[in-house]
């Protein structure tokens, strides 16, 4: 049986942690892009998650994180609007380059990923 892999960008934030936990409970394979592989980060996200180290503003690390991903959830937020915009632009570009077709942003839709 096919089980989609979902990449969560912004997984260490409050909303991201909730999404990661719900995805895991519903049987999805979950990947996360994190800027830190510290013990605190790993403990918060728990087991059952694949980690990619990188940053949404670095296109190459984002592209690597999206390899073999079926869906992307973007819930990253920052106090720097330019940084968030660059991250979103990179995600949209990587979606095209990897032919990943399902994308969701926290503010964008009322449709359920689950």
TrEMBL record:
InterPro entries: NAD(P)-bd_dom, NAD(P)-bd_dom_sf. Transmembrane segments: none annotated. Residues 10-98 form the NAD(P)-binding domain. This is NAD(P)-binding domain-containing protein.
């Amino acid at each position: 049986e096919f089980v989609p892999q979902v990449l969560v960008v912004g997984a260490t934030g409050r909303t991201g942690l909730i999404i990661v936990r719900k995805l895991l409970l519903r049987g999805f394979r979950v990947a996360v892009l994190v800027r830190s592989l510290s013990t605190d980060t790993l403990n918060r996200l728990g087991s059952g998650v694949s980690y990619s180290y990188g940053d949404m503003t670095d296109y190459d690390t984002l592209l690597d994180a999206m390899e073999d991903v079926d869906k992307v959830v973007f819930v990253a937020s920052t106090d720097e609007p330019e940084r968030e915009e660059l991250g979103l632009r990179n995600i949209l570009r990587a979606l095209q380059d990897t032919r990943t077709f399902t994308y969701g942003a926290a503010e964008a839709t009322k449709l359920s990923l689950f």
